[in-house]
Amino acid sequence: MGLLHFTDSRGTQWRVWQVETPAARAHLMDSNFRNGWLVFEREDGTDRRRLAQVPEDWASLGVERLERLCAMAVPAPTVRSVPTVGPTIESPTWLRAERKD
User: Fold this and answer.
1) 95 within domain boundaries
2) Which of 7, 38, 65, 81 is the most exposed place for a label (fewest CB within 10 A)?
3) Environment class of residue 28 by beta-carbon count within 10 Å: exposed (0-12), middle (13-18) or buried (19+)?
4) What are residue 49's DSSP bridge partners?
5) How many domains does the chain have?
6) CA 44 to chain centroid
7) What is the per-residue pLDDT across 71-97, written as a single tens digit (0 to 9) for each?
8) Which domain holds residue 54?
9) CA-CA distances (angstroms) from residue 77 to 62, 66, 80, 89, 100?
10) Do the Cβ atoms of 76 and 47 come closer than 8 Å?
11) In contact, 16 and 42? CB cutoff 8 Å
12) What is the DSSP string of 23-70?
């Protein structure tokens, strides 16, 4: 495993890394991703994709091949934010009260 950086033919910078599915959780995964996947993420974080068929030599591939694999990858599910648990900071009630003039 490792982390690669490459710039595609459009000038977009990407990070690539491999995710291995823990055996204990594989049954919970989509069957396409049970054996792990490659993640392609734009450097600015605006796009993340997954490729289920991980080539053995992915870490040594050239930019053109990485770009083709990235194009074949499917958009990764977005991570939902976790609701806040416990007290939150709000404006004081006197600031929220309606003025009656």
Assistant:
1) no
2) 81
3) exposed
4) 40, 75
5) 1
6) 11
7) 999 999 876 655 556 555 554 444 444
8) 3-80
9) 27, 21, 9, 30, 48
10) no
11) no
12) GGGGGGS-GGGTT-EEEEEETTSS-EEEESS--TTGGG--HHHHHHHH
